[in-house]
Design a protein that fits this description.
By secondary structure, the protein is an alpha/beta fold. Helix content is about 50%, strand content about 15%. It has 7 helices and 4 strands. Helix 3 (about 25-35) crosses helix 4 and helix 5 runs parallel beside helix 7 (about 120-125). The protein is elongated and about 55 Å long.
């Protein structure tokens, strides 16, 4: 059986996928609906990040193909609230997550951590979340 190159697979996906045949504007509406309005709870254990959702959005959609991931990944970060369980989780998240995703996050819930110098730690790390919106 012949190997399929990434470029060939991309073209085949674009031609055969009902989703990818839609105009980009419609795909963006679908991504917005499927990937938004959730709370993603982040926790870290042994330098590994774990995610949990209060409700079950269509996160597996991002694993369908490279094109869908490229088009839709920022929706996941910009349309959801990220609940970060601890300062340790925040540090692991910032160390492992590409900066474009960190900067896309608009809503962050850091709860009430028990840390000796919480304000200093938070201020330094939260400056990296350039997309945060102030709550009314």
């Amino acid at each position: 059986m012949a190997q399929v190159t990434k470029a060939e697979a991309t073209v085949a996906n674009r031609l055969n996928s009902p989703l990818l045949r839609l105009p980009a504007e419609l795909r963006n509406l679908i991504y917005h609906y499927a990937l938004g309005n959730s709370t993603v709870i982040l926790a870290a254990h042994h330098d590994r990040l774990c995610t949990y959702q209060h409700d079950t959005p269509a996160f597996p959609l991002l694993a369908v193909c490279t094109q869908i991931h490229a088009e839709a990944a920022l929706f996941l970060y910009s349309l959801n609230t990220f609940d970060i369980a601890s300062d340790y989780t925040l540090r692991v998240f910032l160390a492992t997550m590409p900066m474009k995703y960190v900067q896309a996050i608009k809503t962050l819930d850091i709860g009430t951590w028990v840390v000796a110098d919480k304000e200093t730690i938070c201020a330094a790390n939260l400056q990296r979340f350039t997309g945060l919106e102030k709550k009314q």
